[in-house]
What we know:
Distance between the termini: 57 Å
Shape: elongated
Structural class: mainly alpha
Oligomer: single chain
Amino acid sequence: MPVKFIxxxxxxxxxxxxxxxxxxxxxxxxxxxxxxxxxxxxxxxSLHAIRVNLxxxxxxxxxxxxxxxxxxxxxxxxxxxxLEKANLKAMTVVADPNAHGxxxxxxxWFWSIDVQGDSTSNDWMNEFYHxxxxxxxxxxxxxxxxxxxxxxxxxxxxxxxxxxxxQWVHQMQEADANNLVGxxxxxxxxxxxxLHLSQQAQDSLERTKGLARVVK
Length: 216
């Protein structure tokens, strides 16, 4: 039975695919340097195309915005904002999702504009949106968890101060039973300090309730 040939699944026997060690065993180690030269040329061509395309599109967009200003299209100007240098920064989260420093990175404003067909017609764009959506969801869940933990810690702090105040009240009662006036005065002072701290913490907690929330 003949084997069906599918070009997309065929691995080209280049040194990067078969390995340097196997190239040496087969006596074609010189191909490694040739592929390195080829990849270097491809990288230079790609970088050149990226720079040229970015510059052309940025200039075209800037010109378009100027024309919209002259036409008084205020509704569109609210949608299409000016491009800034930070907006043209490349996002590498798809290529390297575990890279450091991407936790709080945000997409430029134009990624949130609904451009019809930009994800359905391009698998890379579809993956790009999926990865950033998952990262945003994870960050949202992390913020919600941190908000819950901070509120719980504030409640625990109030309870801790009350507990310490009660401990010193107990020490005061023992000192009073043993006629230790100095110890009793010190215990009263400490109990008042922790009681005052608990009241301050409770007031701060009440003032912050409802101020912080994670928007879904």
